[in-house]
Records
---
Amino acid sequence: MPRPKPEDTSSAGQDSFLDVVTNIVGILIILVMVVGARVQQVVLTAVPQAAAKSETLRQELEDLEKTASMAESEIEELAEQTRTVATAASLAGESRMHLATTVAAAKVEIEKQKEATDAGKVAAAEAAARRKQLQAEIERTTLEADGIAHAAATTTKEVLAYPTPIARTVTGDELHFRLEAGRIAYIPLTELFELARTQTRRHSDSIASMANRIETVGPVQDFSLDYVIEAKIDQARGQVLIRSREWVVRSSSQTIGETAAEALAPHSRFHQVLGNITPETTVTLWCYPDSFEEFRKLREELHRLGVPTAGRPMPEGAPIGGSTEGSKSVVQ
């Protein structure tokens, strides 16, 4: 039989070493597990506290962000208001400059208007003086124009050349004739005024009651005179001033007087009245629109006789009259 081999003692020693190592590793594993369990417990306990503190911090951060956002909004609003105020201040400065410029321009314009007004017053005074000089020319041209308008278009007329007229206001004696309905009639104004003066003297003891009353004298040669007495008391001189403020001549008919042909005859009533005049006497012809042709003929006769003539064109239906505010006749 074979002899049994002796046991190897080195293998037994290795097994013991491995057991020791295994035991140590198991112990280490157990220690790791114990330490891990404790660490997990510590972590799980600390996490809720840290999470609560983090939530608080997050909330505070959000509040701060909201506050910062509101502050930024307010700052932006204040900046916008500042820009608005600056713009308004700039516009106010421009408006003030514009207003100052406007006021200065208005002052200059007022001065110009004042100068223009003064110049206008001077021009008005000159125009008033010129008006009196042109009045005679206007009346003359009016009479000539109306005479031409009433003349027949197919009739050939002889045109007389008169010297250039120089107008002057009548200051001396004056004879008056009415030209109406193609007839010329002498108006005895001098005689009627004399009757009015006599009547006024006769009632001089009751002038106060007669003031502003209408009185009548005539008829004289088919004409009557209506006049208004005006009485003024001059306390400084102790006098009573009496005058006729207004007067109107009335005739009994439009057909009184002579036709132009009859008046131009050598022994007519027209020539009889002219026979008693002086070189200083002016003849005034009150002419209505229906008698311009007769006016032209009689004016030619008066020019031939060398008698100063004044024309008074009258509207149709208007009475012959005068007043203290009226104008005097203008002779050419």
Note: Residues 9-150 form the longest helix (142 residues).
---
Amino acid sequence: MSRLIFTALFCSVSFLSWGWGATGHRATGYIANKYLNKKARKAIERILNGQSLAMASTWMDEIRSDSTYDYTADWHWVTIPDGMTYEQAEKNPKGDIIESIERIVAELKSKKLSPQQETERLKWLIHLIGDIHQPLHVGRGDDRGGNNIKIMWFRADSNLHRVWDSDMIDDTKLSYTELAESLGNPTQQQVQNWQQATVRDWAYESMSYRQQVYDYGNARLGYQYAYKYLGTAKERLLQAGIRLAGVLNEIYG
């Protein structure tokens, strides 16, 4: 079966596989806000009409029920098979998360957008930078980003994608602000290193976690899996927030 067929199959379930849950996305927005420079913060407050990065971060999932935005459905993910680079992988003609982030950043930098276009693109960018840091949004091409792998999360039916999107995070019972504050404070050197990485670097980092992600044994997951890998999910959320701030500072600072 060709990868383009897998693309269509992935798209058919994308409405069930939202990158990070609301708590995770809002945590990245909350973190990013702390690392904005003054000029970028002022511009973003104007563009979002006072809405916080945290609350704007989930808009791209919320519009999935609006057919007007169906063309954005495939932007949340990308397929890069094991052993391949993005450049070598077959491209989705409807777009993917790497292409979308790179394009949206260029459009925002162009300063040629209408106010509505700028607001939409900013909200897309906030969301997609979160998504690309969820390891299963850079898929292998054989299991629809983990959606096909059925899992028991404690006593509830789930799938591997959902475990990483929300199950592990939601089971912490933390609000998005509490989750964000629990992620710690990176050193200045860490912030600098994380912000110097490119969009494609972020995707390859997500690929590098596949051995951890797919360590699901008998598919009955719970405390042990969360103990081993929740830290990875938290680090990815922190990196997403720091990098989101870096991109926004570059665009608006």
Note: The chain has one domain: 3-252.
---
Amino acid sequence: MSLYRGMDRDALGRAYNNSAAVPDAADKIADFLSRSAAVYASFDVKRDLAYGDGARQRLDWIAGPRVGAPTFAFIHGGYWQSRAKEDFAHIAAGPLARGFNVALIEYTLGPEARMGEMVDEIGQSVDFLASCMADWGADPRRLCLSGHSAGGHLAACHRNHPAVSLVLGISGLYDLEPIRLCYLNDKLDLTPEEVAAHSPERLIGPGARTLLTVGAIELPELIRQSTDYAVALRRHGERVEEIAAPGRDHFNVLETIAMPDGPALEAVALAFS
């Protein structure tokens, strides 16, 4: 039986299984972990700052080299049910080299938290950053909220937060309906009502300028998600820019921000110039 764009549950599972689609995914994650450990060893990191009472309601802060610099806040992926901020700290190297402050945001995963709770937690983390950035020497008017995969979804959910001046979605998920209809929902238990309430593509209103990037060799559904979201934003008159990532898969697309000259990071720097 057809469920979504002609795909049944099994086909949808294959369409969203990024680890299976990238043969050396485990090696790339191992590289991320090694480089992330080096970031913690090399920089003065304020770790596990609590923005809420939950065990995972924490963020790490790395101050840039200059007072009054913009802030690059990053939300990790893992399909809302795995991974942690420490696994992707390697991305901080690029923004720090460009003079940014960096915040690495953690959140409660499913099934412990429902989707709405995760979305709310990111809002809490942004509230916390907004209350602290000036005291930490950061420019409170220049906050880029970014995220990869599930993190891209969570970032997009807060385009309208008053403290967010720029959103960067990296291989994000902007319509949750296919997630509800495949194996990924076994832990998330999304309902149709939650899909409607927390799919950024369905909830577009006035918000921050948005940058979108996705690897050119990613799964077609991941590419479509970003393309369709960009179309929807333009249809509503919102400012959006798509950034090409030739030769990048779902994992090494993060090099577009982890490297100082990465094209996505370059776009963020240009937006704040």
Note: The longest helix spans residues 25-42.
---
Amino acid sequence: MSESLEKRKEHITQLKKKYSVYNEILNFYEKVLEEQEAIELTLNVNPVETSKDLKALQIKEGFPLINKGDFILDIPSSVILFESLCQIGKNATDKMREDINVIEDAIKDGFLDLAKLLERHYDKTYIDKILEDIEIDEAVLNFLIHMSIKPFLDANVEKLKDQVDFKNWLRGYCPICGSFPHMSELKGEGQRFFACSFCGFEWPSERLKCPFCENKDHESLHYFYEEGKEIYRVDVCDKCKQYIKTVDSCKLDYEPDLNLEDIATIHLDILASEKGFKRPVPNLWGT
């Protein structure tokens, strides 16, 4: 992980004091982080390598370094993590417990191959078929899958990040895997960074730009925030009617974990929806 578990726990404590309404979700996420940390201590990943010429061509043509299916995963360890997260999830909410019971029954009865599910995490058609067959909440299944492979995604990104040509990549999607960002952050003197919704990689971008439709027209790009809480804002695009939340870390006295900040600002997702804007990339909780 980019940040130690201890620092993330401190961050969670701070957020719970500021936003007590999210305590239940934050407590649950803290347990998830603990399970992921235990897996991280044992993993060793050798990511896919690409040639120098191929990387240059990819950057020039706007292709990411690798596809989602190319990430090197430790499936047996991911299965163990998935099962651990299921046990935690049963104590999170009644809805999650019901869905997890359905998942476990499907695995037990042979209708669901957990190893295959994690191997094909990127295959939406396959995932949709499973959702249709066992009738569970899509957000719950996607959360369990993503959290079970995330330590391995992080390990891949750690070894691939130096291959990214930041100077020639000004696109709104991730240069490593091609996914859209789920959050953005203002750092230093206001430089904007996007955080990938899939692999978590962060890359610099133009400050005035919609990552989803590439709109740069200042008259159709604006933002709003809660009065007195300028740290968090919602950047919206009138052209595509989509939005992304932004954290201004220049106004914070700590290094933000954008997944945690995403949880603590779910109310801004609700406000954006009420204003008629859509979030193309759901957060960890499916909102």
Note: The first strand starts at residue 181 and ends at 187.
